[in-house]
């Protein structure tokens, strides 16, 4: 039984393809973060801020003024 060695070009190509596939799967998860516009981003009839309220829930996210 004879064993043939693969050429270095074939091995390099296989390694490059495997590395490309690993990079694609790692890039599938997208961590973009959170961006929030502050007082400059809201305006109501010339005012630079707008108050948001959720009624009786005083200290919940969204009750910002």
UniProtKB/TrEMBL annotation:
One of its GO terms (molecular function) is porin activity. GO terms for biological process: carbohydrate transmembrane transport. Residues 1-28 form the signal peptide. The keyword Signal applies. Gene3D superfamilies: Porin, LamB type (2.40.170.10). Keywords: Signal. One of its GO terms (cellular component) is membrane. The keyword Hydrolase does not apply. This is Porin.
């Amino acid at each position: 039984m004879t064993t043939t060695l693969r050429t270095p070009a074939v091995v390099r190509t296989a390694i490059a393809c495997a590395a490309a596939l690993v990079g694609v799967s790692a890039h599938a998860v997208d961590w973009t973060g959170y961006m929030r516009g502050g007082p400059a981003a809201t305006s109501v009839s010339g005012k630079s801020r707008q108050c948001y309220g959720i009624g009786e829930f005083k200290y919940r996210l969204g009750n910002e003024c």
